[in-house]
Amino acid sequence: MKLLFLGLLFLLSCLFSLCFSQSYNAIFSFGDSISDTGNLCVNGNPSWLTTAQPPYGETFFSRPTGRCSDGRLVVDFLAEAFGLPLLPPSKASGKDFRQGANMAIIGATTLDASFFQSIGLGDKIWNSGSLDQEVQWFQQLLSSICTSSQDCKDYLGKSLFVVGEFGGNDYNAPLFNGRSPDAVSAYVPTVVDSISNAVEKLIGLGAVDVVVPGILPIGCFPIYLTLFQSSSQGDYDQNGCLKKFNDLSSNHNSALKQALSKLQSKYSSTRIMYADFYSQYIHMLQSPQSYGFSNPMKVCCGASGQGSYNYNNNARCGMQGSSACADPSSYLSWDGIHMTEAAHRAVTNGWLRGPYCNPAILR
Fold this sequence. Notes:
Elements: H1 2-17, E1 27-30, H2 74-81, E2 100-102, H3 113-118, H4 131-141, H5 149-156, E3 160-163, H6 168-175, H7 181-184, H8 188-205, E4 209-213, H9 222-227, H10 243-266, E5 271-275, H11 277-286, E6 295-299, E7 301-302, E8 323-324, E9 331-333, H12 341-353, E10 357-358
Parallel strand pairs: 1-2, 1-3, 3-4, 4-5, 6-9
Antiparallel strand pairs: 5-10, 7-8
Helix pairs in contact: 2-12, 8-10
Signal peptide: 1-21
Pfam family, one: Lipase_GDSL
Protein name: GDSL esterase/lipase At5g45910-like
């Protein structure tokens, strides 16, 4: 009986850790609010930041941690899958970063502040850090991870890099300030070039296995569906998403895949993986039951019962007047622009084994 119990315990452990032999020294993550694990909150949760207030973090951590979800994120599940500790925010002091660090920070953009100033939006965004700044933060950590250039290349060559997603905030800023999706599409080449340059810089430092996610279908987000609702059914696709906004996401992802293909050809010894956020999110909308979702279009935490999506910009999650659903695991959207822990878990599985990462992270 004892042997049977130990066998079952091992099986459960295997299922949780995915039972594979592939391993990494560390995971290094870059990104925005989709992957920030606390960089904006390393000195405490600011009262002005709604995502740092309850009920954020309630599902797993039982408190707000700076994560924009009810619990763990993709980068957390990746760390658990490879037997690594949850990545500490890179700005946290006194942390050991040899098994990984997370440079992602809420509000991060691909492009720096000067770009937004050049298009007349300098006073319309709050930029916690651009992609280039995050790469600089990573370089500053290297002395605590490795001792020489060759030592770094050896160590980083056996680590997993997750670069993004990036682009979401670059497009959110002009879209939320009145620019049309068609006009914003003009920024796609600049954004994608910046992502490509950052990936190439990391490869130069020693990165070999690099996951680069595309952006999500923003036309399916409750915040977009509420703020840009249309009386014309022709503006919506068969999933109930706004077509022009999803076209922008598709344009970005198509350009990003082309850029990554060129990098892969240039650096044949690397493994550059395109993670397809867009397709998996659409699949979760189309087949919610297969993921355990019963409310794929509604917000779990927000203005319960208001409008078609439980979303109200004046009663966002973490604000007075908002509330959280009883079972976040049955929802895809946590707060209207970020996913639930359950959705992050599903995305991770799609990246590890495919089909939503090309090639899949697991060899």
